[in-house]
Amino acid sequence: MKPTIKDVAKLANVSISTVSRVMNAPETVVETKKLRVLDAIERLKYKPNALARGLIYKKTNTLGVVIPDIRNPYYADIIRGMEDASKMLGYNLIICNTDRDRARLFSYLNNFYEKQVDGILYTSDPVYPDYYKALQRLQMPVVLVSTHSMEYRLPSVKINDEQAAYDAVKYLIDSGHTSIGMIGFHLSDSIAGLPRYEGFARALREHDLDDSKDNVVFVNGWSYDTPDAAAQLIARFPSVTAVFTSSDELAIGLIAYLHEQGIRVPEQISVMGFDNIRWGNLSIPKLTTVAQPTYEIGFRSVMKLNAIIKEQDDSELREYLPHTIIERASAKILKSFSSP
């Protein structure tokens, strides 16, 4: 049987808390006791258990991460940013894939409680009332990653989705397009659905192109039914010269569908994506898109959570990082940006 901290304390004739202080804050222990504990550790070949140490100090140096779909390439750089920040700060990550299943999410939250993680990084999905109650019951710090909540005072890190969609559609308008379509997530999605449609509609309204605001097809949840959505869009709105999509996966699916139909991109239809996943730089043509700073979102989320754990100042509750437009080959400029 492996020796325990109790065995060390017994052999050294000290308390368990003294053994813990020798391992974690040796300067606080008198020299004679410290030498007895170190001798007992050596004789027993004791290796401290991280979980047991965490239970004593109420800190396990572990963060729990919930991801809705680990297969989605959007999350790759977010997780990398989380990992780099965690390593720098001395944390380990437990990453759990929920598949947007309520029961799985609640099961993972219970696991986080049992493992006494120091905080939770909740990624992408809306925070429904029952989710919020479950998070509150855990009494653990939480940071929302690439999502936010206007109903609850939960700290978050993301981009401004409405403004990013506005800028994407304005780019198409400034390029000379006056008949613009959209493939987006359903408006019931308060994170990537409604705000991105609102940005699309605002850009059209401000440039007197309200006639295009209904040129929209919504995909069913997150199932990415791109071929069906693309077919519907082209059949219902054949005059569109540009399409804004709510994700790069939708954009790449649209480009593939248009190629199969013999419709040239960008010569006949320009395509604008959203996210800037790596696949966008590999599609033919390469994808013009809104770039989210995904690595920075992941990194900053861990820094924010660490500040909360350590009760440090972090005054910005809902933090928005900047987005950029990445110009590649899938969107054609019909006129010069300098044209009146």
TrEMBL record:
InterPro entries: HTH_LacI (IPR000843), Lambda_DNA-bd_dom_sf (IPR010982), Peripla_BP/Lac1_sug-bd_dom (IPR001761), Peripla_BP_I (IPR028082). Keywords: DNA-binding, Transcription, Transcription regulation. It comes from the Bacteria. The keyword ATP-binding does not apply. Residues 3-57 form the HTH lacI-type domain. It holds the Pfam family Peripla_BP_1. CDD domains: HTH_LacI (cd01392), PBP1_CcpA-like (cd19975). Signal peptide: none annotated. GO terms for molecular function: DNA-binding transcription factor activity; transcription cis-regulatory region binding. This is LacI family transcriptional regulator. The lineage of its organism: Bacteria, Bacillati, Bacillota, Bacilli, Bacillales.
